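Chain A, query sequence.
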Amino acid sequence: MPLTIHSANGSHRFTVEVAATFDQQETGLMFRRSVPANHGMIFPYDPPAVASFWMKNTLVPLDILFIGVDHRIAYIAHNAPPLSLDPISGHVPVTGVLELRGGRSAELGIKVGDRVSWHS
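Chain A, predicted structure.
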């Protein structure tokens, strides 16, 4: 599914997998050996909820973007370390959480406050 992040420096388009079911959300990007530059995974929340993630069985670093109810990025966990069991949360209700290849947010200048749009 297409997803776009609207930043001060332009729009950044991604192709994302949707983790819609409990099993898909539980597995996420675990066991992947790479994540392409303009790909990722979106975890939609309806109704919005405070979400917490970890990197168990995740072999590559990820940027984890927490998208608030206003569809703007509320928090970015940059380069979350592979295999870590430490919880990662944006500490606010979210409508989605986006996982991208580690470092991709910084490469593109994506920041807290940028608007995210996707259609499931």
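Helices lie at 22-27, 104-108. Residues 22-27 form the longest helix (6 residues).
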